[in-house]
């Protein structure tokens, strides 16, 4: 029996491990990325490279995308040589974080075509993408979604959150502001502790046994800050984009975003100081620089 063909565009930190899992699950993958190195890494695992998003969409009915920003998503979906120019495509699954407005915009641009847009951002980082333990939140046409469930279940746990493209993006922004705020406040608190003479490991142990426990204390700080590797795998520039989208959504809906706005400042300053591609865990370095104290594990590299 011939394999089901899937398209995949955007093979970065998240896209590459997700595409790799789909190959392992037995799908035939036709791929595109503007980076030749990203393409070749997946070709080596058995995927077939295409010359453009349109070429991918002329070979696969379902195309998954994992792209950095709303503008790139719009370009890849409906720009020149975009997915909507393909001859075979019926479904786009957008795994990127673009915000509800951009997603609704893409859905509007696709009106009048045979292509359904399933908005499906993911949470769980690069580790979750590799292990297939992501949380996937999807919205859009229910019948199209139902067809996709067997594909998406290879990537993690799938939640259907609503009928309109954009609703899943709202859910994702809610998740990410909680994650970023946890990292921001835990960074400030632990730098304070370090300056007061507390040991980093001790602080983590107490937090995780107590009511201060959160995704930064459980995962990001012990695994990527204490060893001073800063390689969680999510760029601070992309994280700042998610926070901006969340604050903008709060403004649009008339919801105060006071704490989120403060978190946005810290992430923006970190992006300016350490660069767009610095890891999001580098936010603690901004606090450390101002405080003149470091949160370092006993086994940290020099
Ligand atoms: P990334 O920058 O590592 O990967 C993006 C990929 O898109 C790159 O390979 C790049 O070459 C490619 N690309 C850029 N412009 C393109 C174009 N015009 N045509 C084709 N390919 C193009 O980003 P990432 O960390 O993999 O994140 C992807 C999306 O997933 C983002 O929206 C991000 O917010 C979201 N996300 C990331 C994480 C994470 O932990 N990294 C977690 C959840 C969600």
TrEMBL record:
One of its GO terms (biological process) is organic acid catabolic process. Residues 166-286 form the 3-hydroxyisobutyrate dehydrogenase-like NAD-binding domain. Residues 6-162 form the 6-phosphogluconate dehydrogenase NADP-binding domain. The active site is at residue 172. GO terms for molecular function: NAD binding; NADP binding; oxidoreductase activity, acting on the CH-OH group of donors, NAD or NADP as acceptor. InterPro entries: 3-OH-isobutyrate_DH-rel_CS, 6-PGluconate_DH-like_C_sf, 6PGD_dom2, 6PGDH_NADP-bd, HIBADH-like_NADP-bd, HIBADH-related, NAD(P)-bd_dom_sf. It holds the Pfam family NAD_binding_2. This is Oxidoreductase. It comes from Metarhizobium album.
